[in-house]
Each structure stands twice: as C-alpha cells, then as structure tokens.
Amino acid sequence: MNDRSRSPYRPARRGPKRRGTPPPAPKDPARRIAYEVLRAVDARDAYANLLLPSLLRERGVTGRDAALATELTYGTLRRQGTYDAILDACVDRSLRSVDAEVLPVLRLGAHQLLATKIPPHAAVSATVDVARKVVGHHRARFANAVLRRVSARGLEEWLPIVAPDRAADPLGHLAVVHSHPRWMAEALAAALGDAPDGDLAETERLLAAHNERPRVTLLAKPGRAAVADLIGDGATEARYSPHAAYLPEGDPGALRAVRQGRAAVQDEASQMVALALTRVAVEGSDARWLDMCAGPGGKAALLGGLAGQRDARLLAAEVQPARARLVAGAVERSVRDAARTVVADSTRPAWRAGAFDRVLVDAPCTGMGALRRRPEARWRRTPGTAAELAPLQRDLLHRALDAARSGGVVAYVTCSPHLAETRDIVAAVRAERSDTEPVRAADHLAEVPDVAVGDHAQFWPHRHGTDAMFLALLRKL
After folding, report:
1. Distances (CA, A) of 389 to 66, 208, 384, 396, 420
2. Would you list the domain boundaries of the chain?
3. CA–CA separation, 106 vs 83, rounded Å?
4. Using CA atoms, how far apart are residues 122 and 127, in angstroms rounded to an integer?
5. Among candidates 135, 133, 178, which has minimal Cα distance to 155?
6. pLDDT > 70? residue 22
7. Is 219 exposed, middle or buried, given 0-12, 13-18 or 19+ CB atoms closer than 10 A?
8. Which of 100, 413, 430, 472 could pair with 362 in a Cys bridge, judged by C-beta atoms 3.0 to 4.6 Å apart?
9. Which residues are annotated as a binding site for S-adenosyl-L-methionine?
10. Cα distance between residue 354 and residue 317, in whole Å
11. What would the pLDDT profile of 71-98 be if each residue is shown by its tens digit?
C-alpha cells in the first residue's frame, strides 16, 4: 500500500451502501454535539437548554459523553466573552472576520484549554478533528494554529493581557474577566447600587455567580406531592420555599414524582414570588385568581395547587398556543381541578375588568436574572432590548391592575434585575394611575434575608443562590 492510499484525508473505497443503514456515529459525540449547539445558538438564536437535551436523546448519548457535552456547551457559553478577548489576541486579523462556522470551534477549544483539566495536546487534537469534519481541512488548519497560540498561556496569564486595567476601567475589567457584555455589567451594577467608579465588590460577586452551575431545584406541586416524597428519592430540603427541594445530582426526570407530573423543576425564587402573592391579605372574596403570562406553567402549577386548597380558581392565560399547551400539562390534575388554561392575549383581555382577587403578571423581559441557566442570553440581548420591552411591560401591568377588583392585589414579576424593566416600570405605571398603593413585598417573604429594595423585593444569585427575580406587590384601591 502506498503513502497516498494511507492518507487520512482520502476516504477508503467502500461497496454500495445498504438501504436503511444509519450513518456511522461520530467518533467524538460530545464535542460534535457541543459544536452543533454552539453553532445553532449563533446562527438561529437556538436555546441551549432545549436543543442540547434533544440532541443527546436523539443520538443516544449518555453517561460520560453526555456530561462532557453539557460541560463543553454551557462552559463555553458562560465564558464566551473572555474567550473571545483571548482569541482576538491570537488571530492575525480581527475576530469579527473569522468565519461564523469556525468561531464555535475556536471557542470550544479555548474552553477546554483554559477551564478544564483536559491535557492541552488532547484538547487541541480532539477539537481540530471535529473541525475537519464540520468546517473542512483548510479551516481546521487555521483552528489548529489559533488554538496552539491559546495553549501557550493559562487563563490567569491571559487575563492581564486582554482585560482593561482595573484601576483605569473597573467595569470594563470585570466585564472581560467574568465574561459579560460591558453594558450588561453596567446595568447590573446600577441595579445593585454600585457606582461605576466606586467599590464594585458586590457586582464582581454577582458576575462571578453567573458563571457557576446552578443547583437543580424542584417544586412539589401542592396537593399532588410533598417535599418528603422528593427527599425520599434523594433530594434535600430547600432553604426558603416550603414546596421546594434541591437535587444534589442526577437527572430530575428520573424521580418518580417528576415522571408522574406531581413535581417539576422550578427555581426557588420563582416559587417565592408566587407564594408572596398568595400571602397578601385581601378583604372579602378570594376565589378568583389570574396568571396573565402563564407559559410555560411553573408558577401556574404552584398557584393552581394553592388555589384548589383554598377553594379558589385560577385562570392561566398564555398568548402562544404551544406554550399554553405546556401550561395545561403543568396544571393538569390540580387540586379540585382548580386551574383552567386559555389561549389569550392579556394586552387585550378576554375577561371583564375588576374580575379577579389576585393577579400575577410575570412579564416578558430580558431574562438577565437567569444567566446561570441560560448563559447565551447575555450575548443575545443588546443595550436596547429592555427599552424595546418596556411598552409591553407597562401595558401588561396596566391590564393587570384593570383586571383586579378594588381591594385585590397584583404581583408584577420579572426574571431580571434591570432597573429599566423593574422599578422604573412600576414607578411609571403608578405615576399614571391613582388607584394603586404598594404592598411591602419583603413582609411576605419572611424566610428570605436581604431581599427588600424599598417596597419591592429582589432576589440575587450571589446572595440567595436563586435566579435574580424581581417582585412588586400593588393593591388596587
């Protein structure tokens, strides 16, 4: 056999392909899947938390390969800003000029080199092998050259080279070191009350927390499961919510209560803001509750269970039919079948004004409070995203107040701490109405320390280990 026939770039001749024979599985399924998810996030705004599990199931990838694919995907997305700064120093031209198909390969390799225990030669070799299959031999050689330059230094050696000087530009330094767009670091510092040129210690703790893997929190749906059921299957007692438990490890779908729909994954702050709404005293009737933006159904499942236990009824409205189906599945078999799901646009209410005793509006937002679980959101949002959402948020809060009866209570919730979609929205709506008064949210969250921001409540990953949920409670006069 001559050297030409042994070339790894020349496929061997094979006989006719049998009909129905599936294509051979990739030799490195973890890196291949991670690459495909990263590429889809860039190219079509895919959601990693939806696409990654789907690809793992579709290709039968489990065990160590599934764990590696998960670490490579989420680790790369979380630290993308830092890696891009380092890669930009390692290419001969601007990183912006690199082919869109090649960039995920470079980021994937950078993560292995700078943040994992994979030996550098193995990280480069394995990543370049994937590159040959997905972007071709020529561009794989380019990736190989860049990654070898990255491997010349460790992360702590690279940061002083690529990050702005901390003394001269504190926020710029933190944005690169902790992998956030600068505008987002500025918005988060403002929400915390940190001055850009002052002590940014808490801002740094928050940015660092966004790059940590969040724990899995479970909701035992009231009336259908107890926390003891989850603890019996390996979960541990939660810190705040009486309906929550933490799963230290493993697949939550393997738990019997989760498989049966009696429990679900839900962040503890999401549980607590819904519970706070149910704890506010209302005079007179307390039989009609409304969840105006119910998809995908986590808070509706909790509210529906509590409503049934109190002889109340919950109407869960969702404008998108697909998400409404998720809501219907989440609230199915609630206590006394207390929850009903409808497809409805809450900005054009299908119900009469003043019909409800309690109203939850979990408004669409930037999602800046869930950056641990959805790390790609930090690269998908822009400085103008909050301003674009503000009219809808104001409209929904107005319609929520219209839907509440006199003496009823409204909870305005966002999974974001950004002032432009939290306190500013509430202040703007209240300035346009004379029929509301604030209810101090922290008074109804007695289990949670350090959550009060004036009359409102703000959860934080670095303080509470939860998503950064915002809550304002308003009573209709």
Report:
1. 36, 27, 9, 11, 9
2. 29-150, 163-209, 216-265, 268-476
3. 9
4. 8
5. 178
6. no
7. buried
8. 413
9. 293-299, 318, 345, 362
10. 16
11. 999 999 999 999 999 999 999 989 999 9
Q: Does an H or E element contain 395, and which?
A: helix 385-403
pLDDT for the residue 430:
98
| Residues annotated as catalytic (active site), given as ranges | 415
pLDDT tens for 210-225 read 999 999 999 999 999 9
Report the share of the chain in percent with pLDDT over 90. 93
Burial class (CB in 10 A: 0-12, 13-18, 19+), 155: middle
Q: Which amino acids are annotated as binding site, given as ranges?
A: 293-299, 318, 345, 362
Report which residue type is found at 297.
G
Which pTM was predicted?
0.92
Fill in the amino acid letter for 415.
Answer: C
**Are the CB atoms for 195 and 358 separated by under 8 Å?**
no
pLDDT at 25: 61
- In angstroms, rounded to a whole number, what is the distance separating the alpha carbons of residues 158 and 359? 50
CATH class of segment(s) 268-476: alpha beta
**How far, in Å, CA of 408 to CA of 65, rounded?**
52
3 state DSSP class of 225: coil
> What digits encode the pLDDT tens for the residues 145-203?
999 999 999 999 999 999 999 999 999 999 999 999 999 999 999 999 999 988 999 99
Contacts 24+ apart (CB under 8 A), 66-72: 66/30, 68/30, 68/31, 68/34, 69/29, 69/30, 69/31, 69/33, 69/34, 71/116, 72/30, 72/31, 72/34, 72/108, 72/111, 72/112
With H, G, I as helix, E, B as strand and everything else as coil, classify residue 214.
coil
For the cut 70, the answer to whether the pLDDT of residue 426 exceeds it is: yes
